[in-house]
Write a structure and sequence with these properties.
The chain is an alpha+beta fold. The chain is 17% helix and 27% strand. It has four helices and eleven strands, in the order H-E-E-H-H-E-E-E-E-E-E-E-E-H-E. Strands 1-2-10-9-3 form a five-stranded mixed β-sheet. Strands 5-11-7-6 form a four-stranded mixed β-sheet. The relative contact order is 0.23.
Length: 191
């Protein structure tokens, strides 16, 4: 990886800003119906799911597939399912001594993520989904989805947990698969 990538990760794309700076959610779009008939919607513009769908061709279809197989009435908010085929690559990699680590804000995020420049993503058939609680009609909004196993939110996220700091001190995202906001890349840990 060249150092120029760290300085200007995506120079041809406008900085869409953080979630707090962007407008309200776009009109939710129906993604699928679960096995038990629950409508699952997602924000195709402003959600974390939308950024992952843009970064990973085929993830939207795989997410609809795994959610369509699930019964989600009263089910878990976070779920990891096997799609039965390689959906893409998982960015979650361990941090080992000597690895080159950087921190940056991903597109549409307010908090910093940790990236490992020394490890490659790996082929994966797992899809993790995070659903909001049911609305008044029982529909579930997909907050995010990604290829790979479940992981706690990053430190500083409104949903972070006590395990977040420990987990993200030992694990990172593989550098290069996800868009980052220009000017946010640093080698200094922000947590």
């Amino acid at each position: 990886m060249s150092d120029s990538l760290l300085v200007d990760a995506h120079p041809d794309e406008p900085d869409p800003g953080t979630i707090a700076q962007r407008s309200a959610m776009s009109v939710p779009r129906l993604l699928c119906r679960s096995r038990d008939g629950v409508a699952v919607t997602y924000d195709p513009v402003g959600s974390h799911a939308a950024t992952h769908f843009a970064d990973t061709p085929g993830l939207l279809e795989a997410t609809a597939l795994v959610l369509g197989r699930m019964s989600i009435v009263g089910g878990p908010r976070v779920n990891t399912s096997d799609a039965g085929y390689i959906v893409g690559t998982s960015d979650l990699v361990p941090i080992r001594s000597g690895d080159r680590i950087v921190y940056a804000q991903r597109t549409g995020r307010d908090v910093y993520s940790v990236f490992n420049c020394s490890r490659d993503p790996w082929p994966c058939s797992l899809v993790t989904t995070v659903l909001e609680e049911p609305d008044e009609k029982g529909a579930r909004l997909l907050r995010t989805a990604w290829v790979g196993t479940a992981a706690p939110p990053f430190p500083g996220d409104q949903c972070s947990s006590p395990e977040s700091l420990d987990f993200w001190s030992q694990n990172a995202l593989a550098w290069g698969n996800q868009q980052v906001r220009p000017g946010t890349v640093t080698t200094v840990c922000p947590w």
